[in-house]
Amino acid sequence: MLYNELIKINKKINLKDSLFSGQSFLWSLDNDIPEYYVSVIGRYPVIIRQISDNILEIQSTSNSIRNLLLSDFIINYLSLDIDINHIFSDSFPALYQEQWKLLRNYLSLRILRQNPFETMISFMCAQGIGMHLVRKQVSMILQCYGEKTSITLAGKEIALHIFPTPERLAAVDPLALSICTNNNRIRATNIVLAAKGVAEGRIDFDHLAKRGLPLSELRNTLCQNRGIGFKIADCIALFGLGRFDAFPIDTHVKQYLGKWFNSTTALRSLTPASYLMLDAEARTFLNPDFAGYAGHILFHCWRKEVKKLRSF
Predict the structure, then answer these.
(1) Please, is 124 exposed, middle or buried when counting C-beta atoms within 10 Å of its C-beta (0-12, 13-18, 19+)?
(2) Percent of the chain at pLDDT above 70?
(3) Which of 1, 7, 154, 259 is the 20 to 30 Å CA partner of 127?
């Protein structure tokens, strides 16, 4: 049975920018059926179509996901409960007028509240490579180790794969997994070790998701695992644990901090020390509680408007 719902919202959303801005690599667009975005959330195939700025059509094989009704889950997943007016400080538009002219076209980008394990594995695949290659690696992991499922759309059956469990990836031979990581055996080994950490309870996402946990403690805990540095830890926090204050810094972020916000620290090589300095600087002109949320909008805007990149 296929459940179909229309979600009417009073806040604008750009679904394509939200799903294809580098925060998730698990959504796909079926070329034969344009405007329908397909993924598996939990164990259930989900299809989303944007009908207008304020209306989404949702289809799924289940009427509930992760103990929430389908519509309530999607509202939470797409952060539609967040007032975008709180993301940037009231003074930001006046202080950074040129940047704001570009940014205001991207304010309908929403941060996704994703599964932390899936986020961790996805971003461990993302070290030092382009988004299209990250998407390819994650897709190969799903095809090789994920359980098959499907959903029918407009009479066409779409084959999908459920993200493999921590236990499944923990049991994989790193040499075999390296086929999915562009033959990078170190990356494959680190992914297997991280999966074992989750399977054995040493990486406890329930604990890491606690609201009162200091961001520095969350980051440092994740960084105890091989293959996870500050940037990946902050990506897990922001996109997988709903910590909108986590501010991931990569080359693009470093570039816009230097160009748009005159950071001299951005001229240095990105080391753990300079990373923390840039993180602190960003919080002086961004709302600290939403630094990562705002930072991702800035990141996407920079890539599209300044770098003219089209691959996401």
Answers:
(1) buried
(2) 100
(3) 259
